[in-house]
Design a protein that fits this description.
single chain; Heat Shock Protein 90; Four Helix Bundle (Hemerythrin (Met), subunit A); 8-stranded mixed sheet; 5-stranded mixed sheet; 16 helices; 21 strands; 35% helix; elongated
Length: 606
């Protein structure tokens, strides 16, 4: 039996479009062919369940054989197979979905749709992205069926003849083209199998022909290349800590153990399973990107799909398997669907619920995680105000003594919360606060620049003030200066010495007697400069934030400043300013040179 025919498509130009442009990544061809094999096995199992097929007792499997000499890749399943008529129907008529017909026929008798994405639809034609010629050898499960051979070189014609297959199922033989020769590399294929097929539901075996050094030949027992029972399929109550940690290492090749995890297990109103891990952040300033792998029925789809996984959750690592995702024909992109939004909202809710549970039941553990998970939570709050509403009462703030407080527990002075953005650069100010029995919070991460502004928007009756921005009443001694003339005189002395018209100079009587002067910086201007710097000066080169030198009249050096001769007085004023500058930030090259020069001159006068 041999006959020829023409592939039936909606237009004469559709086939080359499918061949070259349906998929964004050529690697996907192997996933599609193997996934079709899984669908074929699932169909056979479904028919056996309802008595329309007789179970042959053979364990389901998919075999992939790379033949370097013949330049072929063959994918074989032992699923439902096809008859002569079905080959013409499902292979030749590209626009027809065999899976849909199968579901329509048996939708009232089986749950087959749980595992069917589409058998020999457009996915089959992904083989032509890497092949000059593709053959199909197939034998239907139906009794008295004859094996069928189908072949096409990628033109719009095909040939059907008697096949040679003796067991039910289908083999796809891909004759790899010159453009696709990279896929004849064993390690390239192993990498694709790990990426796309590592958790597929049926065992996959990989063999290589034409490789004299193939290590698999030495193995007495063949081993599948995939894990057919990923941990996310188990009930959370049946999973151990060791299993969660092992699965994390297996999936993400990360030797740093996660802090904790969330196991998603939803059956209504949609089916969704998965595990989200909170990784330890290794960079205290930058938020390290995560990796969320998306699956549909254990078939890998893509990483970090923002339609399903909210942007801020992409700082986590994890897997999500959702059979109800409305994928398009290439399984690679989500169609617009209200269900996708529901899934995304549900994932966000589950994360918020888990965090709240840990806070309420294991607060000490939660506090130990906080420095690592706080950037993720704060980013989530900024991106999703509903998420903020869910977690605002479990956001922690570390005070100067290293204690963790909630927003309601924060130390406030006249509805102001003081904070330090660097325990090193603002060490003098922190010491002043501690010496005077005052408290502040530590907000050192880059994201805190945004988060502080966000909090002021959400909690409008509270203002956040950096510890070096202003002198609060609690730091003042309460003593009045003897007269305004003395204050004016002191200001003139410093102005003449420093010769800096942009610097504002004020006089205060501070409780701390050790500090001759401190430098404060305008909170609003500094905050805007920080944001501009984070975004690479997208608003243009920012001007310097306004600085104010606060002269402490309660300091002994300041009290006797007017007793020195003019030269020494000028050097002391410069030295006091530069000490205040060092306490506020690092000196630049010219400032450091000036500081050293003035210091040497002062020492020479001793």
């Amino acid at each position: 039996m041999k006959k020829e025919g023409q592939i039936k498509v909606d237009s004469e130009n559709l086939f080359p479009i499918i061949k070259k442009w349906l998929y964004s990544d050529k690697d996907i061809f192997l996933r599609e062919i193997i996934a079709n094999g899984c669908d074929a096995i699932k169909k056979y199992q479904s028919l056996c369940q309802i008595g329309e097929a007789e179970d042959d007792g053979i364990k389901p499997r998919i075999d992939i054989r790379l033949d370097k000499n013949e330049k072929t890749i063959t994918v074989t399943d032992n699923g439902i197979g096809m008859t002569d008529e079905e080959v013409e129907k499902y292979i030749a008529q590209i626009a027809f979905s065999g899976a849909q017909e199968f579901l329509d026929k048996y939708k009232d008798q089986t749950d087959a749709e749980a595992g069917i994405i589409g058998h020999f639809g457009l996915g089959f034609y992904s083989a032509y992205m890497v092949s000059d010629n593709v053959e199909i050898e197939t034998l239907s499960y139906k009794k008295d069926s004859s094996p069928v051979h189908w072949e096409s070189n990628g033109s719009q014609t095909y040939e059907i003849s008697d096949g040679s297959k003796t067991q039910k199922g289908t083999s796809i033989i891909m004759h790899i083209s010159e453009d696709g020769k990279e896929f004849l590399d064993e390690y390239k294929l192993r990498g694709i199998l790990r990426k796309y097929c590592h958790f597929m539901p049926y065992e996959i075996y990989f063999t290589v022909e034409g490789n004299e050094n193939k290590s698999d030949k030495d193995d007495k027992k063949e081993k599948p290349v995939n894990n057919t029972s990923p941990l996310w399929l188990k009930a959370p109550k049946d999973c151990t800590t060791e299993e969660y940690e092992d699965f994390y290492r297996e999936t993400f090749t990360d030797m740093n153990l996660p802090l904790f995890w969330i196991h998603l297990n939803v059956d209504y109103p949609f089916r969704l399973k998965g595990i989200l891990y909170f990784p330890k952040q290794t960079d205290k300033l930058q938020v390290m990107p995560g990796e969320i792998k998306l699956y549909a029925n254990q078939v890998y789809i893509a990483d970090n799909i923002k339609e399903v996984v909210p942007e801020f959750l992409m700082l986590l690592k994890g897997v999500i398997d959702c059979p109800d995702l409305p994928l398009n024909v290439s399984r690679s992109f989500l169609q617009n669907d209200s269900e996708v939004a529901k899934i995304s909202r549900h994932i966000t809710k589950k994360v918020a619920d888990k965090l709240t549970s840990v806070f309420n039941n294991e607060r000490k553990s939660y506090e130990s995680y906080w420095d690592d998970i706080s950037p993720f939570i704060k980013f989530g709050c900024i991106k999703d105000e509903k998420f903020y509403d869910k977690v605002k009462n479990i956001i922690l703030y570390k005070n100067l003594n290293g204690e963790y407080k909630t927003f309601s527990e924060l130390p406030k002075q006249d509805n102001k919360v003081y904070y330090a953005s660097s325990t090193d650069e603002q060490a003098q100010y922190i010491k002043m606060f501690k010496d005077n029995g005052l408290d502040a919070v530590i907000l050192e991460h880059n994201i805190d620049t945004h988060f502080v502004s966000f909090l002021e928007f959400k909690e409008s009756d509270t203002k956040f003030v950096r510890i070096d921005s202003e002198i609060g009443d609690a730091l003042r001694s309460g003593e009045e200066n003897e007269n305004d003339k003395d204050s004016d005189k002191l200001i003139d002395i410093f102005k003449n010495a420093l010769k800096n018209d942009k610097l504002t100079i004020k006089v205060e009587s501070l409780k701390s007697t050790d500090t001759p002067a401190i430098l404060t910086i305008n909170e609003y201007e500094r905050r805007m400069n920080d944001i501009n710097r984070i975004y690479g000066n997208m608003f243009g080169e920012a001007g310097k934030a306004s600085e104010t030198l606060i002269i402490n009249t309660n300091n002994d050096i300041i009290k006797k400043l007017d007793t020195f001769d003019s030269v020494k007085c000028e050097l002391i004023c410069k030295h006091i300013f530069e000490l205040a500058l060092i306490s506020q930030r690092k000196l630049n090259a010219s400032e450091l040179e000036s500081f050293i020069s003035n210091d040497v001159k002062l020492m020479s006068m001793i």
